[in-house]
Each structure stands twice: as C-alpha cells, then as structure tokens.
Specification:
Layout (H helix, E strand, L loop, with lengths): L2 H17 L5 H21 L8 H7 L2 E3 H17 L7 H5 L10 E4 L5 H9 L4 H11 L3 E4 H6 L7 H11 L3 E3 L1 H4 L5
Antiparallel strand pairs: 1-4, 2-3
C-alpha cells in the first residue's frame, strides 16, 4: 500500500474510533472534522507532501475546475510578464493573490464532509463504510471564488451533493502539472 493511503487509513481509523467514544458531541465533531479534513487533503493530492492548509492544498491538489485552471493560466502569464519573461513556478502561481489580497482559488468539496461526519455519528457507519465513502467522494476540488459563490452552500444529502457542480456549471479536470508527472 502506498504511503499516502496508509496515512489516510490511519486518519479514518482515528475518526471511526472517536465517533464511538463517549466524548461530548462538540468535542467529537471537532476531532472528526480534523481527521476527515486531513484524510481528504491527502486523498485529494494522493501525496503526503500536502499540509493541512489552503496554500498547500492549492499547490498539491490534483482536481481543479476548468475555470480555476483557466484563471491559473492567466495568473501564470501575468506573473511571467511581471518577472520580465521568467516563468513563475507552480507554487508561485498558486500563492498569487488578487488586487484585494484575496486568493484567486479556494478548496471545495462537492460532497461536503459533514455527510461522512453524520454517517459516523448518526448512521453507525462501519470503518469500511467510511473508507469507501472517503476514497470515492471525500476529495476536494480547487475552484475559483466566483464558482464557490454559485454553489449550493450546504447539504447533508448525497443526492443533492451529486448535482452541486452541474448546477453551478463546474467541470472538473486533473491539473496538467500532475498529468505530466513533474515534481512540483
């Protein structure tokens, strides 16, 4: 088994264990959130190079929306121009901010992780149920701020979640940096 899958499985084992403790719900939910987000970050990047923060996810996440990648290309061109023709690195592009000092992109889950959290707490998901759901639906996608604004904000319903991206006009691709296999 790859290192990243081993780490994901450890996170999910911890999440499953915490869900079945006598901790107060508020503490249980807090720990579950950290475990599920950590596992999701690794799944989304298929790498243990990712840290649990937005910048790291922007750099390592494989799934991007087409709109987010188009903006990435524009930012790349702008940075190259600002650098007198010297191409910006993937990391420099991902770290770029707009004129209001806001990130161009954000990390988004088509299937909100609250679905898995509720599955554990209220629906008695087994560890295998959790693993299956997380590896199948627990990944993140990098989207633009405009795309995020078009999305249905919150749902615990898996059928509603399955249509969120279609309804917002979001199409997902694998970022070309990961298709070509370059080290980033």
């Amino acid at each position: 088994m790859s290192e990243w899958k081993t780490q994901v499985d450890e996170y999910l084992l911890l999440a499953h264990h915490i869900a079945h403790t006598s901790l107060s719900q508020k503490y249980k939910k807090s720990i579950l959130d950290r475990c599920l987000r950590g596992a999701s970050d690794i799944i989304s990047c298929e790498s243990v190079s990712v840290n649990n923060n937005t910048m790291s996810m922007l750099q390592w996440c494989k799934r991007w929306s087409e709109e987010a990648y188009s903006l990435y290309e524009l930012v790349s061109e702008e940075l190259t121009e600002q650098r007198n023709g010297k191409a910006a690195t993937h990391r420099q592009i991902c770290n770029a901010k707009d004129e209001n000092n806001k990130r161009y992109w954000t990390v988004e889950h088509q299937y909100p992780l609250v679905i898995a959290k509720d599955g554990l707490i209220h629906n008695s998901w087994s560890l295998n149920d959790l693993k299956h759901w997380m590896y199948d639906k627990g990944y993140a996608t990098i989207v633009t701020q405009r795309e995020e604004a078009r999305l249905l904000r919150y749902t615990k319903d898996i059928l509603v979640a399955s249509n969120r991206y279609n309804e917002a006009g979001i199409r997902v691709i694998i970022h070309p940096e990961f298709v070509k296999g370059d080290n980033i």
